[in-house]
Fold this sequence. Notes:
By secondary structure, this protein is mainly α. The protein contains 6 helices and no strands.
Amino acid sequence: MFRHALIFCVLIGNSLTVHAEPMFFRAGLDDALLAALPLSALWMSKEDREGQIQFFKSIGLNTLAVSALKESVDKERPNGKCCDSFPSGHTSTAFVSASFMHHRYGLRTALPAYVMATYVGYVRVDDEKHFAEDVIAGAAIGY
C-alpha cells in the first residue's frame, strides 16, 4: 500500500505542477477541488485494493495524456500566457476522479463529484485560464 500511495502522490504532484502557474497566482476553489477530488476518490477506495490500483492507473494515464497534449499543442491561454492552454489539466484531473467514482461505485456516489468537476471547468473559463474547448477536451480525457 505504501508504494501505491507514493506513486499516487508523485502523479498528483505532477498533475498539479505540469505547466503550473507561478506560485504567486491566486489560489481558488478550482485549485482546492483539484486536490480534493482525487483524494476523495482514493479515500473511497481505502478498503478496495483493486479499486486503488485502478485509480492509480487512471490518474497516471490521465496525467500522461494531458502532459503530452500540452507539450505538442502550442495554444495560448485567453489571459495571454503562453502555450499550454490545451487541454485543461485541472478539468481533466477533476473528471478522471469523478469518472472513477462513477464507474467503480455508481452514479449516485459520483454525482456530487461530477458537479464539482463541472464547476472546476466553469471557473477555468471564467477566470480566463482556458477556452471552453480546452475544458471540454480536459473533461473528455478525464472521463
